[in-house]
Each structure stands twice: as structure tokens, then as C-alpha cells.
TrEMBL record:
Domain HTH hxlR-type, chain residue ranges per copy: 12-110
Origin species: Mucilaginibacter gossypiicola
The protein's name: DNA-binding transcriptional regulator, HxlR family
GO-annotated molecular function: DNA binding
Alphabetic keyword roster: DNA-binding, Transcription, Transcription regulation
A family per Pfam: HxlR
Lineage: Bacteria, Pseudomonadati, Bacteroidota, Sphingobacteriia, Sphingobacteriales
Length: 122
């Protein structure tokens, strides 16, 4: 079982958001589900860099945190569809704004990320 090294900071809304929404693929998952991509296989195709295992873990966390819910259909083969809860829908304008900010500042962001990846000479 996973044991945290540092306690959760819960005095500030930003800390709370970080605990629930930040994860390598969580914002992508929320965005794609909001766009109507609801099946696990479709989500995997939309985020090919992510492993199915990691996506499943993060979908489960989003479900546990009540940002997404799923419908499991009683059929063979099994069918599952994810959808945003009202709480999940309420964060989408913020995620969209962040995405637009990233698009607007993409040249600068690429430059600083590239600079960060260059190792200093020894």
C-alpha cells in the first residue's frame, strides 16, 4: 500500500485542487470525456503515450473524487462509458482557460521547457 511521505496540505484551495486534479493524464482525461470520448479504448487512443494501467488508475481516482462517473452495461463483451459529474463539468471552464493560455503562450513555454531539458556542461 502506498504511504505518503509528506502530509496533505489542505488549508488552501490550490493545494486541494492539486491533490484531486493534478496527475500526469487527469486533465487530459477530463477534457476528452467532456468532448464526448467516453469509452476506455477511445481514451487510450486519444492519449497513446499513456499506458492503459495508468489511465485506469487515474480514471478510478477521478471516479473516487467524484469528478467522473461510469456506466457499466450488462452485456458481453462488457461495455463501460465514463461521463463527467456536475462537479467535473464545473471545472471544465478553468481547464479550457488553462489550455487557451498554453496555446497563446506556446512559443515561450516550448522555449523554457527546452532550456530546462538541456543539461549543463561539466
Amino acid at each position: 500500500m502506498y504511504e505518503r511521505k509528506l502530509p496533505i496540505q489542505d488549508e488552501c484551495g490550490l493545494d486541494l485542487i492539486r491533490e484531486v486534479v493534478f496527475g500526469k493524464w487527469k486533465i487530459h482525461l477530463l477534457y476528452y470525456i467532456w468532448q464526448g470520448i467516453s469509452r476506455p479504448g477511445q481514451l487510450q487512443k486519444s492519449i497513446p503515450e499513456a499506458t492503459r494501467r495508468v489511465l485506469n488508475i487515474q480514471l478510478k481516482q477521478l471516479e473516487d473524487d467524484e469528478l467522473v462517473a461510469k456506466t457499466v452495461y450488462d452485456q458481453q463483451p462488457p461495455k463501460v462509458e465514463y461521463y463527467l459529474t456536475d462537479l467535473g463539468k464545473s471545472i471544465m471552464p478553468i481547464i479550457n482557460e488553462l489550455g487557451q493560455w498554453g496555446d497563446h503562450n506556446s512559443e515561450h513555454l516550448r522555449r523554457v521547457i527546452k532550456k530546462r531539458l538541456v543539461l549543463p556542461e561539466v
